[in-house]
Design goal:
323 residues; alpha+beta; RNA Polymerase Alpha Subunit, Chain A, domain 2; 3 domains; nine-stranded mixed sheet; five-stranded mixed sheet; 50% strand; elongated; disordered C terminus
């Protein structure tokens, strides 16, 4: 009688297959227990990709948060440089539009990007040549003052969004003369400012550093003068002015004695009250007269309001601003 060996062989292969399956399941379980899935959030630079050469993005955030998911061992070796965040501006139209923030990671998976959507405005790139104006910062040693400043070059090119370029009033070269009592040379920074004297950080100045030669001479007068908030307009109905605090409340000026004799106070740049509806803190430029040196060119103005039914007028605003 011939024995049938097929059944034992078939059972043997079935046992082997089941053993392999069980081993795989056990391996996955052990790996998940020893190397579980976890997440980590990275703050990474946000870059603009595929932006046309003649276009510029206004107010693009410097960084975004990217959450990456992966095994514990992957996350442990992942660095900020391994995670990239970008916006694709391919064929982006001019104007304000909504864009997706995308991200990639060298290992693991991108789980979340915050913010994931941004409303950004693109504008055509413009440039303009402007003359430089020297602006002195600080006060020299006692008994001396600046007689002359020579700039090289005397003109620069400003670059940025066309709408912002049209708002540039002048380009200033900021020269710090603090603690100097003799002639010196330095590489000073050139900055674009608008009509109120505020620096326009999104406008690029080329070159950004200007070789400046300063001639120091003796002697001018120095005195401290009170700073006054230059407020105009009317507060909205139902709101009254409670207090105005200026920090610092005085500025040290250096000039010829006859010039100082004609100064009683220094005003800030205009503060329009019409749109002020809540307490606010403003960094305001000072209106420094020509041929006068100042130890500072801006102050902090803290405006405190209170709810009320009395109508605010210009005279009351002026009366409440002195501390």
């Amino acid at each position: 009688m011939v024995k049938n060996n097929q059944t034992p062989n078939r059972n043997s292969w079935l046992v082997r297959i089941m053993s392999v399956v069980c081993a795989c399941i056990l391996w996955v379980y052990v790996m998940n227990e020893q190397n579980p899935i976890t997440t980590k959030t990275f703050q990474v630079p946000l870059t603009a990709q595929n932006l046309a050469e003649d276009m510029v993005v206004k107010d693009l955030p410097e960084t975004v948060n990217v959450k990456v998911s992966g095994t514990r061992s992957q996350i442990a070796v992942l660095r900020e440089g391994d995670v990239k965040a970008f916006i694709d501006f391919t064929d982006a139209p001019k104007g304000r539009n909504t864009y997706n923030v995308q991200a990639t990671t060298r290992m693991g998976e991108v789980a979340e990007v915050t913010p994931s959507l941004l409303q950004l405005e693109t504008d055509s790139l413009a440039e303009k040549t402007m003359n430089l104006e020297p602006r002195i910062v600080g006060v020299p040693n006692s008994g001396v003052t600046v007689s002359q400043m020579d700039l090289s070059p005397t003109k620069v090119t400003i670059k940025g969004a066309s709408a912002r370029i049209s708002q540039v009033d002048k380009v200033l070269v900021m020269v710090d003369i603090s603690h100097h009592d003799r002639n010196f040379s330095t590489d000073a920074t050139a900055v674009a400012v608008d009509r109120t004297g505020r620096e326009m950080y999104d406008v690029k100045v080329v070159p950004g550093k200007i070789k400046t030669t300063v001639t120091i001479v003796r002697q001018l007068g120095t005195n401290d003068f009170p700073v006054k908030a230059n407020m105009s307009g009317q507060l909205p109905e139902g709101v009254t002015l409670k207090s105005v605090k200026i920090t610092p409340d005085s500025v040290r000026l250096t000039a010829e004695p006859k010039v100082l004799g004609g100064i009683r106070e220094i005003l800030t740049a205009p503060i329009v009250l019409n749109n002020v509806t809540s307490d606010v803190e403003l960094k305001m430029p000072l209106q420094i007269p020509d041929q006068v040196l100042a130890d500072q060119h801006s102050v902090i103005v803290e405006i405190t309001l209170q709810k009320g039914t009395e109508k605010q007028d210009g005279s009351k605003a002026d009366g409440n601003q002195n501390q």
